[in-house]
Amino acid sequence: MGVQAFSQIKQQEKISADPAVNARIQRIGKRIAASVGRDLPNAQWEFVVFDSPTVNAFALPGGKVGVYTGLIKLAGDSDDEIAVVMGHEVAHVSSRHGAERQSQAMLIGVGGAALGIGTNNDKNRDYYLLAYGVATTLGSLAYSRDHETEADVVGLQFAARAGYDPRAAAVFWKKMAAQETGSRPPKWLSTHPPSAERIANLQRLAPSLMSTYEQAKANLAAGGAPALVKPVATPATKPTPTPAPAATPAQKSTEQQELDKFLGRK
Q: In whole angstroms, how far apart are CA 229 and each of 38, 152, 162, 238?
């Protein structure tokens, strides 16, 4: 589905012919793809620059990524800022947020139909359906905000593993916040977290990813791959079985601890 949708977008949108801009996005994209690795299996990566003042980027299933020149212009000379946005968009795909939203919409539809049938002869039927509609709408908005927060965290990990400075995320979102016009709706009526909250979260998360970023940058300087994710080596011969020690709880990485904290997991 992602491949077909991306093909249609390429036919409808103007693709940039600027060789320097295209080379830049290809370079950043390849490093993000290497960082994502097995988090998005079987991806056929493709990075396309669309010539439009729209400040946006997106990713579709299958490793299809689009970046608009408006966003590139806002990021200026900072590859780090472009990388954290691309990481965020890819994180939506690797975390299967699109599929989760479809499942949620289906459940809401089924629930509404069941409520309509079950209250068909009830004089308060319209009130029940109205209350159900309000409740599910607010629930969907909260669900979308959770997805955005998760994509911020996971995407920042992707960028740091690719050798891009995670501190750039807060810098970019400050630029985005400066472009906001008019009053924003209250948090509970928005699909995205408030800008100030989002920036604060990113600033709080960045320090925990600095060692990941520095190591990836060192790997790049040494001519290696930026990503820290490496396949587990398989021994040539099977070792003699030995009694297993008592199991101890696995120690979570700093990255995983931060992700759990942001998402409210124990």
A: 9, 20, 10, 24
- Which of 211, 224, 88, 214 has its CA nearest to residue 163? 214
Q: What is the pLDDT of residues 119-174, one digit of tens each?
A: 455 554 454 444 534 444 434 444 355 678 888 899 999 999 999 999 999 999 99
Residue 245: CB partners within 8 Å, gap ≥ 6?
Answer: none
Question: How far is the C-alpha of 147 from the C-alpha of 97, rounded, in Å?
Answer: 7
What is the residue type of 3? Answer: V
CA distance from start to end of the chain: 35
- The DSSP secondary structure of 178-198, one letter per residue, reads HT--SPPPPGGG-SS--HHHH
Q: In the chain, what are the domain boundaries?
A: 2-225
Structure tokens at 1: 């589905």
Structural Rg of the chain based on CA atoms? 22
Q: Indicate the pairing of strand 46-50 with strand 57-60.
A: unpaired
Dihedral (CA of 153, 158, 162, 164) sign: negative
How many CB atoms are closer than 10 A to CB 128? 14
Does the annotation count 13 as an active-site position?
no
Contact 9, 64 (CB under 8 A): no
Q: 46, 81, 89, 148: which one is catalytic?
A: 89
Q: Which residues contact 75 (CB under 8 A, 6 or more apart)?
A: 81, 82, 85, 172, 175
**pTM flag (> 0.90):** no
Q: Which residue matches tokens 């820290």? A: 228
Asked if residue 46 lies in contact with residue 64, where contact means CB atoms within 8 angstroms, the answer is: yes
Instruction: Please give the Cα distance from 41 to 229 (Å, whole number).
Output: 14
